[in-house]
Amino acid sequence: MLKVGIIGTGHLGKFHLNNWLEIPEVSIVGFFDTNDKIAAEVVEKYGITRFANEDELIESCDIIDVVVPTNRHFYFCEKAIKKGKHVFVEKPFTHTVEEAKKLVKLVKESNVKLQVGHVERFNPALLAIKEIELKPMFIEVHRLAQFNPRGTEVSVILDLMIHDIDIVLSIVNSEVKTISASGVAVMTETPDIANVRLEFNNGCVANLTSSRISMKKMRKMRLFQKDAYIGIDFLEKKTEIIKLKDADDAKAFSFDIETPSGTKTISISNPVVPATNAIKEEFVHFVNAIKNKKRTVVNEIDGLRALEVAHFILQKINPSYSTPEHA
Asked: pTM for the full model?
């Protein structure tokens, strides 16, 4: 039984706590939170122990779940890793790229497991195509949200777009060649809406649009590759595949079209989307990686890569932007 300690039990921290409680392979040892009001609510509702300081909690656990503002990620992650504890940390990985690089080195030296909470990797709509070979050459992404003051201490790039940056980097088997970006600060002091174009060495192009000042929500990704189109709706949990029909694809709806090269048969299918809880799913995978000594699904290298691209985008939008100093 792996012992889990949670650092930060605010809005997202409570979601984490609820999901950890559903995993039989772990037990919640307690939590650490500097907010007395929030801590009292957690103790009353869940009956778990509030630790007086983070060091005592870290010493008592096998896994530390870091769910605090991004500028405190490095502080708690470093402490836990140096004590040989496995770490789950919410996205974005760290406040600065330098902090992320230091943690990558520490993880390697300490032989512990670390997973970054890019929860969309576990979205059932994406899991529905995990058996499909993806070789996209064009990707279109829209992630739109209504304005919410919570989380606006960081830009829309680090708040919303970083989910899609991580997914695109995991799908495209190539390095980023060039980045173009534009963005506008509307409601806050950092970009609230942004459009980004990533060009990869293999020729793939990804256009990403993120906004937190939209009238309606949208979380869609469209992948175009040779002979196929794949649409993923992260919000509605739906997936659609349109492609040249395979000979054994009897379940798909199909029709013929005439092209200059002859008649083509097009099939349209909707893969079965598993009824999974993405947050719980990422915790289950993390626990299995620890127990079976396997790579975590979104490891420290993935977290670093997404963060590097995100900060480069911010510099493209505002050339005077400089990576924040170590907090």
From this structure: 0.90
